[in-house]
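Journal club prep, shared notes

We agreed each person brings one worked example of a sequence with its structure written out as tokens. Mine is Carboxypeptidase-like regulatory domain-containing protein. I'm keeping it raw so we can talk through how to read the token line rather than staring at a rendered picture. Sequence first:
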Amino acid sequence: MVLTLVATGSVLAAPGKPVPGSVQGQVLDSRGRPLEGVQVWMKPVVTTGVAEVLTDEHGRYEVTGLPPVGYQALAWVQVPYKGKTFCSRLAHPKVSDYNAFNPRDGLVRNFRWQLSGRIPGNGDYSDLGYFGGSMPLMAGFGQERWATTQDEIELQLTPVGPLIDGSAGKAMTRTAPARGMVLDVPIGTYQVKATFIGAGGKRESLQVSASDGDYANETTVNFTPSGTFCKGTSGGAPGRAYVYWKFR
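Then the structure, token by token:
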């Protein structure tokens, strides 16, 4: 069986009880406002094909005529930011909504735009497991010292201007393995300072750069989208911002 239903969102009446074989819902942004034109998928879990719709101006969607098999509800939003277009997977309001379901009796699956947090069912240590972006930590070229697997780097992140959703953002301190990446950072522009934490707990300030050049005590980094295709994946990782570091 292959599902190929594709429809654009039309104005939906106030939501009532879903009819058998249907899924309906609403998509909201991070501040609770409706999102129009969002891609919503009803993806079968044991066969091929997909039912795809777009939300209307009220953020509502409805898919009807679904065969009584198992599905997952997925949605993505494309957002322009700083001259680039980012793709963010949208969240469900309840963890149980990530489970597969059978639309035999009709049901509701809502979505919201969430800038950070774990995606239920995805791995802890991969950047695909989070709604936020990642900051890989890159050792600068030509150093006499190198980090070990026991060392860590602490980043002090201060937002520069609004985040991708227009909010102000908050300063944060995040720590990760020196050979790893800082996970789950809301997409935005950040002023970055870094501290090296040795295996024995000794701390020392680092120099940082956004491109392995012009190292300084602090630098400004911008996220780059993870890819150009904005649907069909259950993962997150909307973008990456590389932070290069050197010992002083």
